[in-house]
Amino acid sequence: MSELNKQLVTNFIEENIELIEAEDFEQLYNKAIDEFRGANGLGYTGMLTYLLEKADIYPLLTLSYVPNHYMGWDDELISYTIPPHITSIKLDAFNGCKRLKKLSLPPNLISIGDGAFYQCESLEEITLPKTLRQIDTAAFGQCTNLKYINYEGTLKDWQSIIKPPYWIEWHITKIRCIDGEVEAT
């Protein structure tokens, strides 16, 4: 990150210290998106990531969902653990995290939004919790190294999950459930 961008983030922290102290991370996140959208070619995601590290805060502690575009296009992200209280991953939350190899999902996850993991090209394996009820369009689109998905429920549970026709792409061929495998369709 350039020195100019680091200074922009430092100034933003100083201007919004009351939100940080009040742990109003949702409002801070929304203000950061408005402030850093397109900042010097880095984009608000990179700026927001740096902001969270610099301010030593973790906004997902107060949210029940991973926001839209939360870590999208972060080329440095290799491993990520989503906190256990999260129940929803929103639109494009990790879209384009091309180096992301390991992702731990929360045990009470209910939904995965459109393109949530789109183009996570290095993702090799993922385990979906039994609590999952909905997977939206292209949630795992262009995850070219993801050959199968582990699912903690039964085949019958898997069939009950709401999935549009294009939630997945051809390279993922199997869903491994606790009582067998099924073709990914």
Helix count, DSSP H or I runs of 4 or more residues: 5
Name the CATH architecture of the largest domain: Alpha-Beta Horseshoe
Overall SS class: alpha/beta
Q: What radius of gyration results from the CA coordinates?
A: 17 Å
C-alpha termini separation: 41 Å
Major sheet characteristics: 4 strands, parallel
Give the strand tally.
10
Uncertain runs: none
Write the layout of secondary structure elements.
Layout: H1 3-15, H2 17-21, H3 25-36, H4 43-54, E1 65-66, E2 79-81, E3 88-89, E4 102-104, E5 111-112, E6 127-128, E7 134-135, E8 148-151, H5 155-159, E9 174-177, E10 180-183
Parallel strand pairs: 1-3, 2-4, 3-5, 5-7, 6-8, 8-9
Antiparallel strand pairs: 9-10
Helix pairs in contact: 1-4, 3-4
Q: Can you give a write-up of this model?
A:
- The chain has 185 residues and is of the alpha/beta class.
- The chain has helices spanning 3-15, 17-21, 25-36, 43-54, 155-159; strands at residues 65-66, 79-81, 88-89, 102-104, 111-112, 127-128, 134-135, 148-151, 174-177, 180-183.
- It has a four-stranded parallel sheet with strand order 1-3-5-7, with no helix packed on it.
- It is elongated and about 55 Å long.
Summarize the structure.
This protein is of the alpha/beta class. Helix content is 25%, strand content 15%. It has 2 domains: 1-63; 64-185, Ribonuclease Inhibitor (Leucine-rich repeat, LRR (right-handed beta-alpha superhelix), Alpha-Beta Horseshoe).
Features:
single chain, 185 residues, alpha/beta, Leucine-rich repeat, LRR (right-handed beta-alpha superhelix), 25% helix
